[in-house]
Amino acid sequence: MEPRMVGPGPYRATRLWNEIIELFRAGMPVRKHRCRFKSYDRCFKASDAVDILHELLGSNQNFGPEVTRDQTVKLLKKFLKNHVIEDIKGRWGKEDFQDDGHLYRFPPSSPLKSYPKKPSCGKEIIKFPDWNEPKAGTSQEHIPVKSISMNSEMWYKRHSIAIGEVPACKLVFRRELTQTNIEEIWKSMTLAQLQKVLGLDSLDEVLDTKLVTSKHIVQNVYNVNKQGIVTLEDKSKELPHWILSAMKCLANWPSCSDLKQPTYAGFEKDVFKTIIDYFDQMKEPLLTFHFFDVFVSVLGLLQKHSKAVEALQISCLLLPPENRKRLQLLVRMMARISLNKDLPPLSESVRTRTLMVQAFSRCILRSNDEVDLDELLAAKLVSFLMDNYQEILSVPSALKSSIEDHVVHLHRVQIKCARADTDATFPPPSFCHQISTDEFEYQRATGSQEPLAALLEEIVMNKEISGKDKKKKLKQFQKSYPEVYRVRFPTPETEAVLFPEKTKQKPPILMWALKKPFQPFHRTRSFRM
Length: 529
Fold this sequence. Notes:
Blueprint: H1 12-27, E1 31-34, E2 39-45, H2 46-59, H3 69-81, E3 86-87, E4 103-105, H4 152-158, E5 169-172, H5 179-198, H6 214-222, H7 241-251, H8 267-280, H9 292-298, H10 305-317, H11 321-339, H12 352-364, H13 374-392, H14 397-411, E6 414-417, H15 437-461, H16 467-480, H17 482-488, H18 492-496, H19 511-514
Helix pairs in contact: 1-2, 2-3, 4-15, 5-6, 5-10, 7-8, 7-11, 11-12, 11-13, 12-13, 16-17
């Protein structure tokens, strides 16, 4: 069985658990072993199981080569507890697995987990602001959209530019958006973009959108300092000064500006342990229990680097501001410590980067239900965070610009024309439904050509305008809508009927025109009689 990438979606942790079990059962060789003068068929040594599973996890793109042997042993302990394996006497249920020569075997029953039936969170449709106050007790489940009756008069006004007329218009200013309106817009568009990046039909199975606080998103975007770190309005939620000083000391080692220089060997290890103890005592991880499934789903995108970064950017905007700030400071410290060659080793047996991941993974991501793959999933996410923390923990500029442009659009004035059926601005966005090709063609024909045909007929039958103006308007209409014009006037003869030629009368021949050209007067001799 070949390993495959488990993509985003609901129950990703359960799907990963089942896949690892199937891969382990298929790849773990079993044979006859002797123990205390007795032979046991189809079993394996504990140390062999660690070797096989460690290699399997390291080569699996869902976990990667950073999985340690110690983490592999912990996973095998969970296998023993959940009856994925049992000892040769059939005992299981305890996490007493050791990396030694004890013998284990696979039970005959299937150890795969069934997918839990999560209660539906219910789809929450985020409203766009309505310019009219909603009546008390009215349902706000759907966005109110003003229906538009497209008659010929409206088409005449809407397309008046094409026929050379612009009716008198006036500006109508919209009501000011409230802060609540803006926050709800941020929440709606942020969740929509997250769903798009994850490639899910709905966020319902990975996130209860009712638990997303719109105010947190806006604060995380705008309340930041020059370094992009969140600034908190409630100063009581800040990290204690002594923890900040300890984190700065290790992050900037050996330049400890807030602490005096160490006076004894091992000082840096004591400072590091102090930081670990503080974050370990937190009751909830920084990414919160509510967003566990979201971040586990994002792990399915790690092979698509840019999408994974964008998904994590958006997901981290949903966090409470105090959690986001602590995450920013902690991950930045971890990354700097891992790259600081001047800092003495903080462990004799583990590399500094691996130590950072092992020490802080649990305080960053874990499930409230203690999912069996918590530690491995958290380690994978934290490793990616450390490598890309500057980009992930910054505000996504494209999303910010998109939402700000939308808010500016909603602030703009409307153009309302005299006797118009509706405002010149477009109606509020509504949810679309897919239709068939035939229905689309029918709507296109009946929804646009019929009103235009009626408008053309109005121009033709209008007796109040002169023939010259009528020709001008018809020519402009033909240029703008040639297909509609061709239906009404298929041949030049049908067009010529509108403008019959008048018989031209020849002007009367004047008598003076027949006379010879003017001759100058010549004096003649007179004869007397």
